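Hi there, hope your week has been kind to you so far. No rush at all, and the record is pasted right below.
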Amino acid sequence: MSKILKKRMNKPGLSPGSLVHVGEQNVETVTITLIDYDAQKIVEKKGASLKECMISLNTPTLTWINVCGIHDSTTIETIGRHFGLHPLILEDIMNSEQQSKLDNYKDTIYIVARQLIYNNEKQCVEDEQVSIILGKNFIISFLESSNNVFNPIYNRLKNPKGRMRQRGSDYLCYALLDCLVDNYFLILEKVDDHLENLEDELFHRSNDDTLKKMHHAKRELVLLRKSVWPMREVISNFRRIESPLVQNATKLYIQDVYDHTIQAIDTIESFRDITSGMLDIYLSNLSQRMNEIMKVLTIVATIFVPLTFLASIYGMNFKHMPELEWEWGYYFTLGLMAIMVIGMLYFFKRKKWL
């Protein structure tokens, strides 16, 4: 079952900016990928050390530091100290249960986004937090787990003629957000396939598990909406932000991400309507099956009414009943009952009650 409402860990007595990990630990150790690039060259270092990250701060190239794992407060604190990050940013990075948001700290821009992941084993959608810090000539991204969501960005950076190699850190920040939003559509395609299979099951082989599956799908759509809807405000604020860190030329591309986010939200809303419609159809089918059962029982009871009446007549204890002495009386009564049953069935058939 997808987790919709997550428990928040209370931190009573701790001052703002205290580094306490809130959420699940998805990786054993923190891994860092360091990429330094400009228009002429690119240097990628997987498994980089904190010292190498600090040295890159003094280079003229653009630096992208991608951190997988947010549970180690020492790593987060060291990065924050050397890059001059506000303590509230560091606190938010380690709290993985936040909604998407954008905070402008003048010399840095902090963005919280949600990444959607399809768990093939559990057959459900999960979400993780992605933190992105935009600074002058550097980008720092934090992921909860080691995944390949940013692999398309890695591949684009390796192209020396690509637009990304010619632009600044604001364009890289846009590209990361665009990658996350594009990933939404990959997840929505899987959700769409699941809903199609569920719809086919509803009309052809519905059973007791169908209602559970529809309820599960409805909860997943609530999670999707909860994850994607706030991104609209984040992208909108990023598009309108007044900061020397974001160039006007980049804002045109951010508008495109905003349009894609709206499209993803509309898709989720349509899925919710489809799921609600399937639930109505399921309840309607259930009611129809119950009506069919009641109709059959009513017809059976109706058929036995005249038979019971006829049998009750000959069950009376009167002394003088002519048919009691008749040789063929018993068979005549059975035949009359059979004719009555056949006649009633024919009548019901003509009325299309059968």
